[in-house]
Write a structure and sequence with these properties.
- InterPro entries: Myoviridae_GpU.
- Pfam families: Phage_P2_GpU.
- This protein is mainly beta.
- It is built from no helices and four strands.
- The protein has one domain.
- Helix content is 0%, strand content 49%.
- Strands 1-2 form a two-stranded antiparallel ribbon.
Amino acid sequence: MLQQFAMMSLGYFVFMRSTIPYQDTSREMNWSHVQNDVVGAMPKSQFTGKAGETMEISAELRPEITGAKCQFLPLR
């Protein structure tokens, strides 16, 4: 019997065995820094904020086992 536990959520979509079980996730975050020249010293680096973030989720939908094609619609 499949257990109905949430594995992860993305917004209002909940990944679980009955919807789309995910296999792998990766997250990449970038930060922005600028270099400022200083007279008589090494340049200083200043943090200017978050440059961007990317999250990748890989999943395999097998309608004969779990989920259906309509499960992808909320993720678009």
